[in-house]
Amino acid sequence: MANSRVAGHSGTAMALWWLSYRRSGEVAGVAIIEAESLMHARMRAAIDGLDQDLAFAEGHRLDSKLAALVTSKKIGRFLPLRQALRMIERFEGKR
């Protein structure tokens, strides 16, 4: 279930992180990563090749309401801009 989070190896609760990436100054897409911290999320995305050699722009921890809207299929994947925009529309409809 996408909104159930387990504790990481340090005992810290895992959260979902929304990581935005740019190509040539334009937003290229996002990765949604389950991790303990922003640094951990960025590292996991890089190790898994999800950043696709793009420039990291920013990252945000998703609150519990937004995290509940993320399906397990979206976690740990890079979402191109069009898919990311659909997720944002979904988020905005549920706030």
Q: Kindly report the average pLDDT value.
A: 88
Question: What count of structural domains?
Answer: 1
- Please give the oligomerization state of what you see: single chain
Q: Structural class, from secondary structure content? A: alpha+beta
Summarize the structure.
The protein is of the alpha+beta class and 95 residues long. The protein has helices at residues 38-47, 64-67, 81-94; strands at 15-23, 26-35, 55-61, 77-80.
Can you characterise this structure?
It is a single chain. This protein is globular. The N terminus is likely disordered. A hairpin with a 2-residue loop joins strand 1 and strand 2. It starts with 14 loop residues before the first strand and ends with a helix. The protein has 95 residues and is an alpha+beta fold. Helices cover 29% and strands 32% of the residues. It has a 4-stranded antiparallel beta sheet with strand order 3-1-2-4.
From the structure above, extract its key features.
single chain, 95 residues, alpha+beta, four-stranded antiparallel sheet, 3 helices, 4 strands, 32% strand, globular
Topology of helices and strands:
Layout: E1 15-23, E2 26-35, H1 38-47, E3 55-61, H2 64-67, E4 77-80, H3 81-94
Antiparallel strand pairs: 1-2, 1-3, 2-4
